[in-house]
Amino acid sequence: MSWARIAAIFLRIVQQFRRDRRTLALMFTVPVLVTLLVGYVVRSSEASLSVAVVDETSASTSSFSAGAELLTALDQAGSVRAEGLPRSEAQQRLDDGDVQGIVYLNYAAQAGTAVPKLEVELVLEGTNPQDSGAIVRAVQRGLLQVAVTGLGVRLGLPELSPQELVTTQVSYVYGGPEFDFVDYEAPALIGFFAFFFVFLLTAVSFLRERSGGTLERLMAAPIRRSEVVLGYMLGFGFFALMQSLAILMAAVLILRIHYEGHLLLVFLVAGIITVGSVNLGIFLSTFARNELQVIQFVPVVLVPQGLLSGVIWSVDSLPGWLQVISHCLPLTYAIDALRNTMIKGQGLADSGVFTNVLVMVGFAAFFVLLASGTVRQQVD
Questions:
Q1: DSSP 3-state of 48
Q2: Same domain? 265 vs 369
Q3: Domain that holds residue 109
Q4: Partners of 308 in the beta sheet?
Q5: Of 21, 188, 214, 279, which has the fewest Cβ atoms less than 10 A away?
């Protein structure tokens, strides 16, 4: 073993990195920035679970208020925010997404006994099964506290069990009890992986087109610049769409995720984000001289979108200034459109899908302009 040769190889690598100052800077700055971003998001994100309590027990002759007792119990637990609202306002708040559940309370007479039974109907928004499970557990604990320490004692019936005093029915606006975390995350993963892999495919492939001299050979051929631009976009875009289709089919056929909307609309949304990713890859590949520098764009371009666009944490739970950044990222609108389609069953005529698709088309058009200018500069 020759330590002199090993030292020579070591010094050669050090010299390469020292000459490539951009790579050297990214090696130290980007990991630190990403680490700080993740830490700040984790520490600053707040649970945004809210329920409305609709107390319709006022007709009871008892002075006991089940609604007020449940609000107190939920407030003491602190896992969800609860607010007493009338029925119409609570339903509107649920439709708007301001609350994730409604608890309806009423008394019902039991046959053969004068003991009233508290009927509870829990209506869940249902798109996020983890949120739904947390709300169900919180409400059940609150009702148990009401039944044991409040309802039974104040009615003078401490010998009755909570099951004899309270009956609960749970229903879902979207999803259902069979809806799991994979079903909720599938739309986000479809959008993110399509964006991620398409970006890498395009950036690396176009870099090879440049470094291999293909663009120079095209310049010598009798072909227009606009044809070069369109040809590259269609070529990369075709394989990118096939990649997105493969991701979608794997999620549906192999993972067997539950979905409500039309898969054709899902593919349309994935196709739009793919077009934007293709052109973003073409544009950014201009600033890279080798594959290593292309990979360095991953933490700069893709990691913030994975953290802030709703893949892991919901956008509503982020701090205010991070929500502003989130709404400047195309993947945020893609994931929102995919979730509205696959979980809520909305169509293109619904504002929750149409608005997001419109913004995505704007992003895609902007990236097309950037990529067009890049290719023309390479061809000139």
A1: coil
A2: yes
A3: 50-172
A4: none
A5: 21
